[in-house]
Amino acid sequence: MNVSEALKSRITCRVFLDKPVSEALLREVLEGAKWSPSGGNLQPWHVYALAGEKRKAFLDLIAEKQKVTPFGEGSEYPIYPEGLKEPYKSRRFKCGEDMYASIGVAREDRAGRLAQFARNFRAFDAPVILFFAIDRQMGIDQWGDLGMFEQSVMLMAREKGLHTAAQEAWAIWHKTIAEFVNMPEELMLHCGMGLGYMDETAPINKLRTERAPMEEWATFSGF
Length: 223
Fold this sequence. Notes:
Strand order of the largest sheet: 1-2-4-3
Shape: globular
Helix content: 25-40%
Distance between the termini: 31 Å
Order of helices and strands: HHEHHHEHEHE
Number of strands: 4
């Protein structure tokens, strides 16, 4: 699979098959992703991977905590800016509407929407859950490096026939995650990512979000 094919076929997978991913295959994905660029070659990424019984124990813990605090512990950073302006606000709205429409959940079906949202915290049943963290000393540039590394993981996954679901939603459980994986205090959780084999028959996995035309975001001079 070439890079353009990996980019176009990468989606947020929201239904995974009940099929394990071997440690060896995951290591191949991460080994490939480690060649991501970073300013000064700082390589500011840290990854925690859960599978098997560890994954089950973690998800069971989250399920128990959700009974008391269904909306988590609060994130350490704003997942979206306050007062999101256009065109970003409309893009986010349409993404959500298209996703719920793909599974037949109407806007007024609050219970259905909450049920789908809750699936985030099962990692959409992905057999592997990855958590990405960064040292608190790092700044905006290094956060950009972390994002490039995460994208590299997603593209390497596609090369290996896998799919992913990058989930900033996990940020609201940062305290529980840090404790469970024994994350040092100097690290800050960015997001989680489900990884596994996609259920190609699931309607929600047929969703393809739109992309703005190049004229909206690119300026060319001197050509």
